[in-house]
Specification:
The complex is a heterodimer of chains A (about 525) and B (about 325).
Chain A: H1 39-48, H2 57-60, E1 77-79, H3 84-97, E2 101-104, E3 120-123, E4 130-134, E5 139-143, H4 148-156, E6 160-162, H5 173-177, H6 186-189, E7 196-202, E8 208-212, H7 217-223, E9 232-242, E10 247-253, H8 256-268, E11 274-280, E12 284-291, H9 294-303, H10 313-326, H11 331-348, E13 354-355, E14 358-359, H12 362-374, E15 383-387, H13 388-405, E16 409-417, E17 437-445, H14 454-471, H15 483-490, H16 492-505
Parallel strand pairs in A: 1-3, 2-3
Antiparallel strand pairs in A: 4-5, 5-9, 6-9, 7-8, 7-9, 10-12, 11-12, 11-16, 13-14, 15-17, 16-17
Helix pairs in contact in A: 1-3, 8-13, 13-14, 15-16
Chain B: H1 23-28, H2 35-43, H3 52-57, H4 74-86, E1 115-117, H5 119-124, H6 126-136, E2 141-142, H7 148-155, H8 162-173, E3 178-180, H9 184-192, E4 198-200, H10 201-206, H11 209-213, E5 219-222, H12 225-230, H13 232-246, E6 249-250, H14 266-270, H15 277-285, E7 292-295, H16 299-305, E8 312-314
Parallel strand pairs in B: 1-2, 1-3, 3-4, 5-6, 5-7, 7-8
The chains are: A alpha+beta (about 525), B alpha/beta (about 325).
The structure holds flavin-adenine dinucleotide (FAD) and iron/sulfur cluster (2 copies).
C-alpha cells in the first residue's frame, strides 16, 4: 500500500489499506483525549478578553455525546459566544495555546463530529437571533447557531419559510450548511447548504470574513459542506420563500427497485414539489409525493400518476394480507407493519395540523414523527449517496445488510439536485459521477426493541459504508467515527489536497481536529 | 406530603426539542438553564445543588412537555428537584411563598354543583368573579378553599401536609364539574381526582356561544398555558376548533404549544421582568396585527399592559 508523506506535526493519513478491513467488525475510531497542556493560559487569555469559559463538569456534561449516542467525549470547557468577535477571540487564543476547538450546533450528527475529546467546545446555539428579513429580495440574515425551527417561527409571522432543512427541528443553520442537509424538497432545491447566499465566517486564525459567491468565494465554497474545517459560520444570508400548506399523497410498493425507479422518474421529470421513499423494512415501501399548489397536483395526476406503478393504501393492504396469508411464518412481521401503520398514520394527520386536507407546518409534523418513531438514546443511521445509475444497487445491497442485522428497520431515500459543478461538492455528500441529481439512502434500524452492543452497531455501519467504498459512492455524513473511510472513499490525492488547504488555513490544526483529517 | 413519583432525568436523549418553546431558553439562550441542561447535568453526575440556578429558573409553564419525544414529566421533575434542593438550601429564593400551606381548621363543606376554583387574582376581583359565576350557570358556586396556597407551596417544592390536601379535596369529591382558573393546579387535581370532570376557565367560558361568537381574526386570544399543557392532547384540539370557527389568533407556536407569558409563575409574582414575562409578551406579539387582546388569566393583563396599548379584556367580559 502507499503511504503519503506528511510534514512533521501534522495529522497523518489513515494507514489502513482501502480493502484490508473489509468485513472485520472493528471498533469506532475515536481520537484520544487531548492532553490539556496550555489550557490554563488559554482560559486566562480569554478571561482577560471578556470571554466566559464554563468549566464546571455539569455544564460540560450536556455535550458529552451526540444524537448517535455511540461516541463520548468531555470538553475541558465550553464557550457560548454571543458574537463573531467572541468566536474570533477564542480561535486566536487557541492558535497561540494550541488548544483544540470543536464547533457544535444542535449536536444532531451521529458519528461524533461535534463531540470534543477534550479542549474547548463552542456551543453555537447561543447565537440564535434572526437579524433581518428582507421581503423584497426574499432573503433572511440570521445568526448561524439558530435552530431551524426557531428560524421557521420567526419567518412564519411574516408568512414566509426557509427553503429546506433536515427533518428534526433542532439542527442549526451553521451545523447544516457545514454538512449538507437533505429534505424531501432536495430534488428541486438541492441540499440545504445550497440555499446560502452569503456567510460571515470566523477563520481558524480568528479573522472575521464576509463571503459569498462573489466575495471571498474560495472561503465560501470551502466552508459550505466543509465540516467546520475552514471556519466557524457565525451568520448566514439565505434564500426564503412564501409559506405554503402542502398536499401529501402516498403510493405503496412491495418492490424496492420499482419504487426507486418511480422515484427517479418523478425527480428527473420534476413531477412533484416533494418526494421521497420511506419503508417498513423492504415489505411496505411508501413513495410519498407532495405539492405546494393544487395546480401542481392536478398536473401530476394528468401527466405522471398513470406511469407510476404504486398502489393506493387499500389495494396495497389487500395484496399484503394475501402475501402474509401465504407466508404465515412471517406473521410477526405482518403484525409489526400493521402496528406501525396504526401508530404512525394518525401522527401524520393530526387535525390541528391539517387544513382542508393539506398539512400545515409539515416540518413540525414530520420532525415530531421522526423523533417519536426513530429517535432514541442511540441512533445509528449510516447512509450512502450515489449517482442515479448506481443508486438501486446501493440500496438493495444496503437493504440486505439491514435484513441481516435487524428485524425492524426503515430506509429513507431522496433525490438531491446538483446545482452545477460547484467546488463545495468536492469531498462532500455529492457522489462522484452524479450529473444533475444524486440520490441518498439512510439505513435506520429500530433500536428500541432490543439492546445492541456497540460492536454490533459499528459492524452494521461498517458493512453499509463498505458498500460505498466498493461501489465508489459517497456518504451524506462522513466525519468523526467515520474518518477511517474518508481516504478510502475519496482517495489520497483529494484528501491530501484538502489537508494542505486546511494546514494553510489553520496552522496549528486546532479547529475541529480529528473530524476529517 | 410524599414527593410525587415522576419520570427520571435518565430518559433524556438530549434532542433539544424542549428548548424550542422554553421561555428560559428564549430569554437566556443558555442550555444549562433548561430541562435538557438539568437532565444532562444529572446524567453526568451533578448534584441538585450544582444545578440550583437551573432548577430555580424554571417557571413550570409546561411548554416543554408536549415537545419531549421521551414523554419526560419535566414539571413534575423540577418540582421534585426543588424539594430535594430545599433540604440543603441555606435560604429560600426571594420569590418563594412567604407562608407554607398549613392545615385548615374549619367546617368541611360538600359541594354539589359546578364549582369554580377561582384563585387569588380572580377572587380579589369581585365583580369579575361574579360575572364568571353567572356565566357558568345559576347554581355554580365559588369554592371557599381554592388550594392556591397548596399550589404555591408545591411549586416551590415545599412539603404540603397531607391533611391540608385532604381538606382541600374533600368538598370537591362531591362537587359537579370543576372550573379551575389557576392552570398550575390542574395537573395535581387530575391526580387527586382522576374521575372528576375538570375544565380550565377559558375552556368553560369559550363553550358559551355568545363568547365564542364575539371572537374574530383581529383578536389575539391568550391561552393560559399551564392548564393547557397539563391536558394538552385534548385541549390542543379544543382550541384548534375555536381557531377554525372564529379565525381568532392564538398564542400558539408552530408546534401548537401555548407561548407562555410566565405571569402566573411564583417568580413573576415578585418581578415580572426578571421572570422574563416582558420578553415573552413581545415574542407573542411579534409580527402580529391585532386590535384586541383577550386573556384567560388575569395575571397576563399586567404583563401585556407593560408592552402594548392594544385594548385588553378578560374572556369573561366578552359575553
Ligand atoms: C432525528 C434526526 C433526524 C435527522 N433528519 C435529517 C434529515 O432529514 N436530513 C438531514 O440532512 N439530516 C438529518 N439528520 C442529521 C442532522 O440533521 C445533520 O447531521 C445536521 O447537519 C446536524 O446539524 P447540527 O446543527 O446538529 O450540527 P452538529 O451535529 O452540531 O455539527 C455537525 C458538524 O458541523 C460543524 N458545525 C456546527 N456548527 C457549525 C458552524 N456554525 N460553523 C461551522 N461548522 C459548524 C460541527 O463541528 C460538526 O462537524 C437528522 C438527525 C437526527 C438526530
Ligand atoms: S416548564 Fe417551562 S420554563 Fe420550565 S423547562 Fe419547561 S418550558 Fe422551560
Ligand atoms: S425534549 Fe425531552 S429528551 Fe429532548 S432534551 Fe428535552 S427533556 Fe431531553
Amino acid at each position: 500500500m502507499k503511504f503519503t508523506s506528511v510534514e512533521k506535526g501534522c495529522i497523518p493519513p489513515c494507514n489502513v489499506a482501502p480493502n484490508s478491513l473489509m468485513g472485520v467488525p472493528r471498533v469506532q475510531t475515536n481520537p484520544s483525549r487531548w492532553h490539556g497542556d496550555g489550557w490554563q493560559g488559554f482560559v486566562e487569555e480569554l478571561k482577560s478578553k471578556g470571554v466566559v469559559v464554563r468549566e464546571e463538569k455539569w455544564e460540560r456534561s450536556i455535550f458529552v455525546t451526540d444524537a448517535g449516542g455511540l461516541a463520548f467525549g468531555l470538553p475541558h470547557g465550553v464557550v457560548r459566544p454571543s458574537s463573531s468577535e467572541d468566536v474570533s477571540k477564542v480561535l486566536i487564543a487557541a492558535q497561540t495555546h494550541l488548544v483544540p476547538v470543536i464547533t457544535r450546533g444542535g449536536g444532531l450528527s451521529s458519528e461524533g463530529e461535534a463531540i470534543a475529546f477534550g479542549g474547548l467546545l463552542l456551543d453555537m446555539t447561543s447565537m440564535n437571533r434572526v437579524l433581518e428579513v428582507d421581503r423584497e429580495n426574499m432573503t433572511v440574515r440570521t445568526e448561524a447557531g439558530i435552530f431551524w425551527h426557531q428560524l421557521a417561527e420567526v419567518l412564519r409571522r411574516d408568512g414566509l419559510d426557509y427553503l429546506s432543512a433536515p427533518l428534526n427541528m433542532t439542527s442549526t443553520v451553521g451545523g447544516v450548511l457545514g454538512v449538507g442537509g437533505i429534505d424531501i424538497n432536495s430534488p428541486r432545491l438541492g441540499c440545504s447548504a445550497d440555499q446560502a447566499l452569503a456567510l460571515r465566517v470566523v477563520t481558524p486564525t480568528g479573522e472575521i470574513v464576509e463571503c459569498s459567491g462573489s466575495e471571498n468565494s474560495d472561503l465560501f465554497e470551502r466552508v459550505l459542506l466543509g465540516y467546520g474545517q475552514f471556519g466557524v459560520i457565525t451568520e448566514a444570508t439565505m434564500k426564503i420563500r412564501p409559506f405554503t400548506h402542502i398536499k401529501m399523497r402516498y403510493l405503496y410498493y412491495s418492490s424496492l427497485r420499482t419504487a426507486i425507479e418511480d422515484l427517479q422518474l418523478i425527480v428527473r421529470e420534476d413531477a412533484s414539489d416533494y418526494s421521497g421513499i420511506l419503508t417498513v423494512m423492504d415489505s411496505a415501501i411508501n413513495l410519498l409525493v407532495a405539492f405546494d399548489s393544487d395546480g401542481r397536483e392536478q398536473e401530476f395526476d394528468a401527466r405522471w400518476r398513470s406511469r407510476l406503478r404504486g398502489h393506493g393504501e387499500v389495494s396495497f393492504g389487500v395484496r399484503l394480507a394475501l402475501y402474509y396469508a401465504l407466508h404465515p411464518w412471517r406473521i410477526k412481521e405482518a403484525l409489526y407493519i400493521v402496528d406501525r401503520r396504526m401508530k404512525m398514520v394518525p401522527e401524520f394527520f393530526r387535525p390541528e395540523f391539517m387544513r382542508e386536507g393539506k398539512i400545515e407546518d409539515r416540518t413540525v409534523v414530520f420532525s415530531r414523527a421522526v423523533w417519536k418513531f426513530w429517535g432514541g438514546r442511540q441512533m445509528v443511521i449510516p447512509d450512502l449517496s450515489a449517482s442515479a445509475e448506481k443508486f438501486i444497487e446501493a440500496v438493495e445491497r444496503g437493504n440486505a445488510v439491514c435484513r441481516k442485522y435487524f428485524r425492524y428497520y426503515t430506509l429513507y431515500c431522496v433525490g438531491i439536485k446538483k446545482m452545477e459543478d460547484l467546488p463545495r461538492y468536492e469531498m462532500s455528500c455529492m457522489p462522484p459521477g452524479a450529473t444533475d441529481f444524486a440520490y441518498g439512502c439512510e439505513f435506520e434500524p429500530m433500536l428500541k426493541d432490543k439492546d445492541y452492543s456497540r460492536d454490533y452497531l459499528q459492524s452494521f455501519k461498517n458493512e453499509i459504508y463498505d458498500i460505498g467504498v466498493d461501489m465508489g459512492l459517497s456518504y451524506y455524513r462522513f466525519g468523526g467515527m467515520m474518518k477511517g473511510y474518508i481516504r478510502r472513499i475519496f482517495g489520497d490525492e483529494m484528501v491530501d489536497r484538502h489537508l494542505e488547504m486546511k494546514r494553510k488555513a489553520d496552522p496549528a490544526m486546532i479547529l475541529n481536529p480529528d473530524v476529517i483529517f | 406530603m410524599m414527593l410525587k413519583p415522576v419520570m427520571c432525568h435518565e430518559v433524556c436523549i438530549g434532542c433539544s426539542c424542549c428548548l424550542l418553546s422554553c421561555p428560559v431558553w428564549n430569554r437566556t439562550r443558555d442550555r444549562s438553564l433548561t430541562a435538557q441542561g438539568r437532565n444532562k447535568a444529572l446524567q453526568g453526575g451533578a448534584t441538585v445543588e450544582d444545578i440550583s440556578n437551573a432548577i430555580d429558573s424554571c417557571i413550570l409553564c409546561g411548554a416543554c412537555e408536549p415537545n419531549c419525544p421521551e414523554g419526560n414529566d419535566i414539571v413534575g421533575l423540577t418540582i421534585e428537584q426543588r424539594g430535594l434542593l430545599n433540604m440543603t438550601r441555606k435560604g429560600y429564593p426571594s420569590w418563594y411563598p412567604a407562608t407554607e400551606a398549613k392545615p385548615t381548621k374549619g367546617v368541611r363543606l360538600q359541594y354539589k354543583e359546578v364549582t369554580l376554583l377561582a384563585g387569588n387574582a380572580l377572587k380579589n376581583d369581585k365583580d369579575l368573579c361574579e360575572a364568571v359565576l353567572k356565566l357558568l350557570g345559576n347554581k355554580s358556586i365559588t369554592a371557599s378553599d381554592d388550594g392556591s396556597d397548596i399550589l404555591r407551596s408545591m411549586e416551590a417544592g415545599l412539603q404540603v401536609d397531607k391533611s391540608r390536601i385532604d381538606d382541600f379535596i374533600y368538598p370537591l369529591n362531591s362537587a359537579g364539574p370543576l372550573v379551575v382558573a389557576e392552570g398550575g393546579l390542574r395537573r395535581h387535581l387530575k391526580e387527586w381526582l382522576p374521575d372528576k370532570k375538570i375544565a380550565g376557565l377559558g375552556e368553560a367560558l369559550l363553550s358559551i356561544d355568545s363568547i365564542r361568537r364575539s371572537l374574530g381574526p383581529d383578536d389575539l386570544y391568550v391561552i393560559e398555558c399551564r392548564g393547557f399543557h397539563s391536558d394538552y392532547a385534548r385541549l390542543v384540539r379544543f382550541y384548534d376548533r375555536v381557531r377554525l370557527e372564529t379565525g381568532v389568533q392564538l398564542n400558539l407556536d408552530l408546534q401548537r404549544i401555548a407561548i407562555p407569558t410566565g405571569a402566573s409563575s411564583i417568580q413573576a409574582s415578585e418581578d415580572l421582568e426578571a421572570a422574563g414575562c416582558i420578553e415573552q409578551v413581545k415574542w407573542i406579539l411579534y409580527g402580529r396585527k391585532v386590535s384586541r387582546i383577550i386573556v384567560e388569566n388575569l395575571a397576563d393583563i399586567d404583563a401585556f399592559r407593560r408592552v402594548t396599548d392594544i385594548p385588553l379584556v378578560h374572556v369573561a367580559l366578552l359575553a
